[in-house]
Amino acid sequence: MKIRLRQLKNKNGTVSLRLDTFMGYFTDASGKRKAKRIRETLPFHIPTEETPNYTEEKLRLLQKADEIRKEKEIQLQESGRYPFSKEKTKNDFFIPFLEEIVSIKISNKRNNEAVWLGMQRWYKVFATPIIRFKTINDSHCSSFFNFLEKKAKKSNGTPLASSTNRLYFQKFYSVVQQAYLDGKIKELPAQPASFKRANKKFKTVLKRYEIIALRNAPYYNRDVKNAFILSIEMGLKLGQLRTLKWKDIHQEEDRWSIKMPNKGTNEPFNYMIPESIVSILGIPPKDSNNLVFPLLRSASEANVQLLKWVIMSGISRHITFESARNTFAFNKVSEGIAIQNVQRYLGHQNLRTTQKFIEQLQIDIPKDKKGFASNSPFAASKAKQRKHRISEHIRKELSAYTYKFSQTSNPTKNND
């Protein structure tokens, strides 16, 4: 906040110049918060427009007034009376620190500029300009999130979307975390319980009868169907499936694998191909640079094609290619695969990322399963994935299903 130079028009046509200094807030005897301002009218004024050399005189007086404003601001800062001096701003006040972090985040990644500026704008509406670091606690964070949910409104009067509220608060909390790491806040405030509930998301996992329905439903785009089912069985991402080439499939005696880059190490990770699909891979084409799924184009088009296939199979849920990867991870965890192996299959660089991923699958992990400690943060999840009982003949149909990789680009044939 700086000293402002204001122009006030008089009845006789002249304009008075006034310095308006904001000195923070105070609470009056009735308990109301009011702004404390110092107003000083300068001993000269801009003449009327009919005055000779009006433009030059106006410019000269405004320059003179601005020089007085700057000099007064320097005097207040040096005397320590001005609450926004550089030293005090750096050590005591939270909003200048927030503005600095926001500018750094925007310079690092311009894509998030609107979100960071939106958070900063709403926080300035919520908080006072002279709020100090010692005020940033659990209650303050909870109050800001409640403000976003209940009081923040758009220009048309409608409240902000819940997803926008969560996004703004996430950015704000990252600034609070940085202040804690810098030693400006002694204790890291906890996230409000209402934010944790609103921010809790669960991943879509395909049920067994839905997998059977999808496999039995023919679809003209064989690459979309085959790639989706392959993702269920091997956990590959849509981006990996789109760029998968025949040269990436390797055979060593009776073992088949797909070589993929691993973020954690420099060496690639070999995805072992299940035995149920080894026999149907067929002989790779002569040109090993060909894509395995040439009809799997952009991500948006692939998910639209997938949605059409899902509707044709009689499934009413919203399913994307990510659902196949979620289903793969769910099956691996249910089988008791070690968490480190699940991490390698999913291609996560950090083990905590895999833990959070599993938490969102809504699955109870038995304590005696291999690789999952009883005190794991995701082992105590109370959410349960509902299991559907299926008959024995459907189980056999599920395990006996086979499909063929598309080596042609003819989209008119069905893949039954």
Q: How would you characterize this protein structure?
A:
With 416 residues, the protein is of the alpha+beta class. The protein has 3 domains: 4-88, no CATH class; 92-199; 208-400, Orthogonal Bundle (hpI Integrase, Chain A). The protein has helices at residues 54-79, 86-91, 94-108, 113-126, 138-150, 162-181, 193-199, 208-216, 222-234, 238-243, 275-278, 299-312, 321-334, 339-346, 351-359, 392-400, and strands spanning 4-9, 15-27, 33-46, 249-252, 255-260, 269-272. The strands form 2 sheets. Strands 1-2-3 form a 3-stranded antiparallel β-sheet, covered by helices on one side. α9 (222-234) packs parallel to α13 (321-334). The longest helix has 26 residues, at 54-79. The chain starts with a strand and ends in a 16-residue tail after the last helix. The model is unreliable at 83-89, 367-390 and 397-416 (pLDDT under 50).
Quickly list its features.
416 residues, alpha+beta, hpI Integrase, Chain A, 3 domains, three-stranded antiparallel sheet, 6 strands
The helicity comes to 40-55%
CATH C-level class of the largest domain is Mainly Alpha
Q: How many β-strands, per DSSP?
A: 6
Number of domains: 3
Q: How many alpha or pi helices?
A: 16
State Rg: 32 Å
Could you give the order of the helices and strands? EEEHHHHHHHHHHEEEHHHHHH
What is the name of the CATH superfamily of the largest domain?
Intergrase catalytic core
Measured distance between first and last alpha carbons: 70 Å
Based on secondary structure, the structural category is alpha+beta
Low-confidence stretches: 83-89, 367-390, 397-416
Strand residue percentage = 5-15%
Question: Which strand order spans the largest sheet, edge to edge or round the barrel?
Answer: 1-2-3
Average the pLDDT over all residues and give the rounded result. 77
Describe the oligomeric state of these chains in a short phrase: single chain
CATH architecture of the largest domain: Orthogonal Bundle
Q: What is the CATH topology descriptor of the largest domain?
A: hpI Integrase, Chain A
Shape: elongated
Task: Sketch the major β-sheet.
Answer: 3 strands, antiparallel
